[in-house]
C-alpha cells in the first residue's frame, strides 16, 4: 500500500482528496494535516510514503513544508497541490525536490496517477505545470541556464547521458531499462551515479537539468559523444 499524508487547511478539500485516493486499491490515506508544520511533524515519525501539500496554508506554507520535509523526512515524496499554476511556484517546488505539481481541479484519475508515480520514485507534472516548465525553459535567461547545465554534464559518460535523457522524459527506471536494453537494477545504479556526479538531490532535479541542457535520447548529446562512446 502507498501511505499518503494529505495537508490542506480546508477540511472539505482534505475529505475530497481522501475519498478519491482511497478509491484506489493500492493507496491508503494514513494522516491529515491542516498546515505545513503539522504535516512535517506527522511525516517525521515515519509511516508516510507520499505527502500531498497545498501551497497556501497557515503557519507554514506548502513550499516551506517541502523544504522542511527534505530535512526531517527525506524518504517522503512530496507532491504540491494547489489552485494556482504560476510558473514560479512550479519551478520552486521542483527545484526544492518536489516529486511533482498538479492543480486542485485535476481529474481524480490524475491525482491517483500522480501519487503512484511519486511513490515509484518518478516525477509527475500535470499538463498545466508542464506548460509552465516549458515556458520557463524558453524564457529570457534560458540560454545561459542551458550553457551552465551542459557544463555540468561534461563529466558524464555517454551511457550516463542516455539514462539522464530518459529521466528528462519522465521515464521510470523500468521503462528506461527497456529502452536501453538494461535491467532495472542497472538503471538504478546509473541514476544513483548520475545524481552524485551532478550533485542533484533527486531525479526530478536531474530531469530538469537534462531539459535545461537540451539532452535528447539517442544520437549526439550536447557536449558529448554518440552512443558508441564511453
TrEMBL record:
Domain HTH luxR-type: 149-214
Entry-linked Pfam families: GerE (PF00196), Response_reg (PF00072)
Gene3D superfamilies given in the database record: 3.40.50.2300
Coiled coil: none
Domain Response regulatory: 3-119
Modified residues (4-aspartylphosphate): 54
Keywords: DNA-binding, Phosphoprotein, Transcription, Transcription regulation
PANTHER family in the record: TRANSCRIPTIONAL REGULATORY PROTEIN NARL-RELATED, TWO-COMPONENT RESPONSE REGULATOR
Protein name: Response regulator transcription factor
Organism listed in the record: Streptomyces rhizosphaericola
Amino acid at each position: 500500500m502507498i501511505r499518503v499524508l494529505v495537508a490542506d487547511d480546508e477540511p472539505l478539500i482534505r475529505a475530497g482528496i481522501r475519498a478519491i485516493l482511497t478509491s484506489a486499491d493500492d493507496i491508503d490515506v494514513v494522516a491529515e494535516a491542516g498546515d505545513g508544520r503539522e504535516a512535517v511533524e506527522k511525516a517525521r515519525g515515519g509511516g508516510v510514503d507520499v505527502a500531498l501539500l497545498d501551497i497556501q496554508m497557515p503557519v507554514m506554507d506548502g513550499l516551506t513544508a517541502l523544504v522542511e520535509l527534505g530535512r526531517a523526512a527525506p524518504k517522503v515524496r512530496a507532491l504540491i497541490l494547489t489552485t494556482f499554476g504560476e510558473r514560479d511556484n512550479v519551478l520552486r517546488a521542483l527545484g526544492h525536490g518536489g516529486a511533482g505539481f498538479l492543480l486542485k481541479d485535476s481529474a481524480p484519475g490524475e491525482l491517483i496517477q500522480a501519487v503512484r508515480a511519486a511513490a515509484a520514485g518518478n516525477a509527475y507534472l500535470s499538463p498545466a505545470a508542464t506548460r509552465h516548465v516549458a515556458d520557463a525553459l524558453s524564457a529570457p535567461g534560458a540560454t545561459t541556464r542551458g550553457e551552465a547545465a551542459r557544463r555540468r554534464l561534461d563529466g558524464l559518460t555517454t551511457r550516463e547521458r542516455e539514462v539522464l535523457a530518459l529521466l528528462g522524459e519522465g521515464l521510470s527506471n523500468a521503462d528506461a531499462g527497456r529502452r536501453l536494453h538494461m535491467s532495472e537494477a542497472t538503471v538504478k545504479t546509473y541514476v544513483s551515479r548520475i545524481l552524485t556526479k551532478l550533485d542533484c538531490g533527486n531525479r526530478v532535479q536531474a530531469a530538469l537539468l537534462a531539459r535545461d541542457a537540451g539532452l535528447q535520447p539517442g544520437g549526439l548529446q550536447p557536449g558529448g559523444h554518440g552512443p558508441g562512446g564511453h
